[in-house]
Amino acid sequence: MSQDSRIQENTLNNWRRRYQYMDIPFKLKLTNNKDNPYKYHDIAFFSSENDINSLPLESLPEFKELTNLYFLFESYIPDLHLYMDGFEMMENPSFLENKVNGKNYLVSSTKWVPIYSIKDNCNVPLIPGIYQIAVKHEDHSFYSWINITTKSMSLEEWKIMKEDIENTVSGLSLDLIKRETSFIKKNKVNNLNIPDIQKIDYLLASFSKLMSSLESIEKNPRNEIAKNYNWKIKGKSPEVDLRSIMQANKHPEKNNYVYSPKRYINYDIEENRWMKFFMEYFIKYILSSIEYLEKYRNGLMQQQEGDKHGNKPDSFYNREYNELDTKIVTLIKFKGFTHHILDLNWMATIKKPMSKNPPRALTLDYRYNVVYQLYLAITSKKNKLTLHREYQYFWKRTDLLYEIWGYIQVVNSLIEIGYKPIEGWIFSQNYEENKTIPFLSEGTTVKFRDNKMDTEINLAYNVSLPHNSIKTNMHSPIYTTTGADRPDIRMDIIKEGIYLGSLILDTKYKPLRNIWDSYYYVRENRYPHKISYAKKTMDQIKSYRFSTVSKLFYIGLSEKLNINEKIVQKLINDGRPVIEAWVLYPHYEETRSFFSPLMEEGIRLFELSPKVNQKELCDELKIFIDKQITAFW
């Protein structure tokens, strides 16, 4: 063995000894100063994403934005891949690219790797928020989080934003239920046999306790000793009781016979009648639950196929598929055992319940009461709503949380100024069928209407813009001629069937200096090498404002209002369908007074923070909408 080989073998052995008492075969250190070997963070990893999702925000390692950040990723296994949210935005010579999913990753090394460092030419900062780190090797994955903090949003503001989303979404959903109550009653909509995720999860969580109770009932069901009477010849010494004597006095002609009882175990009692009723209900409920989960799985597959931008990693979908498969398998087991109970010989003798309510004896027997309480839980009609669990992923991603929160503020503002939501997202949900509030998915559009004004507003969330006019319609009236094709929020205004233009709002969870630089284009010719973090955002917003086109803009206006067609055509030629583009951003302590030379051209910066009153947003949206309508009406 050569000296180099021995050195390599010794190194591997050292690593193995170092990690022989650990669950993971690698180590990750993070620091702001790679020259100080004693000042770093050891990052803890977990083998399940569920474990890290349960970690409180306060426990995550924190690193300030716009400060140097280095990774030291060590392992004796050479083909480990380390991924992190945000790597795809960086141009770093240390990164390698996964040819399958196109994502950047790091391999193990004995050197500190700069993630953000101006002097190392790693100039793209991580925006404030929670970042997931994943280390993958073959079929094994390990996960962790780090928190990039900023002065822009405190922990208190983060909690306000989270609670605001929960309260607003739940509140809007409950309001919708109240509005539809009369319709539901009128049409006798029945929700008892229609499952929802919350109730299915409760059933599955009760599975072990339920199985134990049913097994005990199978071996020792409740019963009573009953008597069956028949006339028998006296010579066979039949049993005699009070009823036998009464019948003998009543029928003297049968002096050679005795009305004799025969004892037997009777299972056809009210407790078991209700038990059979519950079990038959469970069979129907399980079948509808399995159907529900399979439909959900198919919808998830369609979402994954349409996720061209890779907004969610394959691990997210795989985790969802595994959870759904586990639920379905458990429900099938439960269904099989329920059939087994119903097929027992003594169950064949059980009739339907005679009483309107279960007897008290049923609730006093722990085994029967377990079954009864499960039945009550899954047949409850209370309007108890739960957020779709996909929201839990966004609680950890502050930038995405801000995006959803921003959309909800626009929804609230439109409702406040008199526009009624009639379709889309939670407003298309039948809460008598499913009490899980749907997630605000990309591609969602909510339609609003003001009947007095005969005006409709379509509010789109993360809907991609087409690149030609063929794919445009009144639901998606604009297309783009550039690569900026996915605005966070798009608001289309339609009056009496005529498209009057759009407003684009893009949420940017970053400092104002990283959003807009008024002097960049002045410096560009003098200092072409100077980097501006704001340039990408400025180019994106300008593309939304100036590089969008619509063949439907003002079409039909001249006929509707008897306006000269040449005047309308001049308006179309001189204008753009995206009349204004706004950037929504949170407050920063260092936010300075700001003037944009493009303000008069329809580009606006709008500060929107959780602790600040949202009335200004409401007022400005009303001004914008009214301006487009009153220009002609």
Instruction: For the record, give the distance between the C-alpha atoms at the N and C termini, rounded to a whole number.
Output: 90 Å
What Rg, in angstroms, do the CA atoms define? 34 Å
Task: Assign a percent range to the helix content.
Answer: 25-40%
What count of helical segments does DSSP give? 17
Low-confidence stretches: 11-22, 174-195, 525-531, 591-595
Assign an overall shape.
Answer: flat
Q: Which strand order does the major sheet show?
A: 14-16-17-19-20-22-23
Average pLDDT metric: 77
Query: Strand portion, in percent?
Result: 15-25%
Number of strands: 23
User: Helix/strand/pairing class, anyone?
Assistant: alpha+beta
Largest sheet: 7 strands, mixed
Textual characterization of the structure:
Helix content is 38%, strand content 20%. It is α+β, with helices and mostly antiparallel strands. Strands 14-16-17-19-20-22-23 form a seven-stranded mixed sheet, sandwiched between helices. Strands 2-1-4-8 form a four-stranded antiparallel sheet, with no helix packed on it. Helix 5 (207-219) packs across helix 10, helix 7 crosses helix 10 (366-378) and helix 12 crosses helix 17. The N and C termini lie far apart (90 Å). Residues 11-22, 174-195, 525-531 and 591-595 have low confidence and may be disordered.
Short overview:
By secondary structure, the chain is α+β, with helices and mostly antiparallel strands. It is 38% helix and 20% strand. A seven-stranded mixed beta sheet has the order 14-16-17-19-20-22-23, sandwiched between helices.
